[in-house]
Amino acid sequence: MRSRASLFVSLCAIAVCVRLGASDLTVTRTYVTVMGFSWANCGAPDAPAMMKSLEVSPDPITIPGDLSASASGYTKVELSSPLQVNLTVEKEVAGFWVKVPCVDDLGSCDYDDVCALLDQLIPPGQDCPEPLHTYALPCHCPFKAGQYTLPKSDFYLPNVDLPFWLTNGNYQVEAKIGSQGKEFGCLKVEFALHSA
């Protein structure tokens, strides 16, 4: 997949989606469309964890619906607990980027230990979900230093209830991963969201 840090960013995104479904402040949507997905590394050029490639299709992505993805990257350091993630979510409003506050652990939040969140999502001892299991990609800490590759794989994205404040518009999300004051990597994604 990408670096373990980038893999971690992906798993964090999954965790956020699961939390979206569990939020008390939700309204049911028939479908969600994600358009114009793009990504970039946003850490220092010599950051120890870096995404090398990430491709997703189709564009637009429809939820619920099918998604194909492939990714690769590396990490030069082991990523272990406590692994912090600083998530900054911004929405474009009248031509300006406005930071979405952290509400019920969603939005621009700081997560003190994503390793613990992963253990809640996938109990230790349980096989990692597909396609991670097939390609021997880890889903629990520690994430060892090394190269990671996820060949093109198909996923089904289930229906998700979105919080009422997560509405149509353009978004950018920046995820910084680090531990004990050191930043290991940063990934930024941009997309447009339409829900109905």
TrEMBL record:
Q: Out of the domains of life, which is the source?
A: Eukaryota
Q: Name one Pfam family in it.
A: E1_DerP2_DerF2
Key word Signal present: yes
- Give the CC-aspect GO terms: cytoplasmic side of plasma membrane
Q: Name one GO biological process term.
A: ganglioside catabolic process
Q: Which residues form the signal peptide?
A: 1-23
Q: Which InterPro entries match?
A: GM2-AP, GM2-AP_sf, ML_dom
- What does the UniProt keyword field contain? Signal
| Domain MD-2-related lipid-recognition, residue spans | 39-191
Q: Reply yes or no: does the keyword Transcription apply.
A: no
Offer an example of a GO molecular function term for this protein.
lipid transporter activity
- What is the designated name of this protein? Ganglioside GM2 activator
What organism is this sequence from?
Paramormyrops kingsleyae
